[in-house]
Amino acid sequence: MTTLAALLYRDDRTAQADLEAALHNHESVVAWPGVLPQIAEGILAFLEMPIGNLAVSAYLKHRHIEAAIRETARSPGTPQVVQLMEHTIRSNLEPTVDIEVNGVTKTLLRLELVAEISVEAVTAVVQSGQVVDIAPGSATAKLTLSAAGFELAKAETQPVELAVPEEARIVIDLTAMGEPIIDPAPAAG
């Protein structure tokens, strides 16, 4: 499964050092340079998100998939296959890196992750109100990670897999009409 970290930092053995160097080169974005290792570690943990999760979140907002989710929630058991033609998914995430000192939380860094995924064709399978599989055609991704206007990492990829990870499932709160979320599947045990 391809993660955001794997796309931005092709060598996971040097990813933390590469990110620390980028942050250090732009010390103005970090109030306390002494905590750069912890900041880089936290950012990399966030970037362990499969790139497919960004695509799934975007697909759930597509009107044909929304309709299939509602219909299969009312009539569980029969899956629906929804085909989407060539399209581009754009996602913009803005996580923060916070630090807590003496019970007071302060934001040290505001990040911006911009992803653009170009997909030739996608087939989504919806069953019982959930997207249970996404089978993409050829897809490429462009990612940019920045902080305070400074680019920390950038990548453009060859085709990537956007399939829903086995350890994740999609949950739609139809009663509250809330935003779709990706929940980890319950641990076996």
Instruction: Compute the number of strand runs.
Output: 10
Residue fraction in strands: 35-45%
Distance between the termini: 24 Å
Q: What share of residues is helical? A: 25-40%
Globally, the shape reads: elongated
Q: Count up the helices.
A: 5
Poorly predicted parts: 166-189
**Radius of gyration from the alpha-carbon trace, in angstroms:** 19 Å
What's the pLDDT, averaged over the residues? 76
> Oligomerization state of this entry?
single chain
Reported for the largest beta sheet, the result is: 5 strands, antiparallel
Helix-strand category: alpha+beta
Count of all domains = 1
Strand and helix order: HHHHHEEEEEEEEEE
What does this structure look like?
With 189 residues, this protein is α+β, with helices and mostly antiparallel strands. The chain has one domain (4-184). 25% of the residues lie in helices and 38% in strands. The protein has helices spanning 4-8, 15-25, 36-46, 51-59, 63-74, and strands spanning 80-84, 87-93, 96-101, 104-119, 122-127, 130-136, 139-147, 150-156, 168-171, 181-184. Helix 2 (15-25) packs across helix 3 (36-46). The radius of gyration is 19 Å and the shape is elongated.
